[in-house]
Amino acid sequence: MENNLRFRLPPGSCVMETGGYKNYSRIMPKDELHALITERLGIPRSHIVCEYGMSELSSQAYDTEISTQNSKLKIQNSERRFRFPPWARVQIISPETNREVADGETGLIRVFEFGECVFRHGDSNGRFGHSPRQQF
Question: Residue 119: what are its φ and ψ, rounded to 5°?
Fold first, then answer.
């Protein structure tokens, strides 16, 4: 942050954070990145939308629901869980057994996309909090 630039985006603006900063020039924890976004762009944390996806997937999951109501932006992210669209399902599986783990346990994320009739198995870790199996 050599230039120390700061901007104030218009009220109601959002930022899409895709997590693509991992394993490049440095690793930055998500909380630190979100603090920088808030500080440098004037975007509240509630207006930072996080996305989960892989280049092999046709569908992505988002941790925030954005809609418009009476021409005003409405953001819902009280439970910051990633949600896939209805045509995708998620399993959290054990790397040792290749079987689905119990709710609350950590494992590898497996995504089934029924629109594409394929599934992808990533190397990211995830944990189910609650069903349905469209979110983690």
Answer: -135, 150
pLDDT in tens, 79-120: 678 888 888 888 899 999 999 999 888 888 888 887 655 555
- In contact, 6 and 65? CB cutoff 8 Å: no
Helix, strand, coil percent values for the chain (each to nearest 5): 10, 35, 55
Containing 99, the helix (H) or strand (E) segment is none
Sequence-separated (6 or more) residues with CB below 8 Å from residue 131: 103
pLDDT value at 52 more than 80: yes
Tokens of 23: 């394993």
Handedness of CA 27, 30, 31, 35 (dihedral sign): positive
The residue to which tokens 């992210």 are assigned: 77
Residue 131 is predicted with a pLDDT of 47
d(CA 82, CA 111): 12
- The pTM score is 0.66
How far is Cα 18 from Cα 23, in angstroms, rounded to an integer?
14
Q: CA separation (Å) from 60 to 36, 96, 125?
A: 24, 26, 16
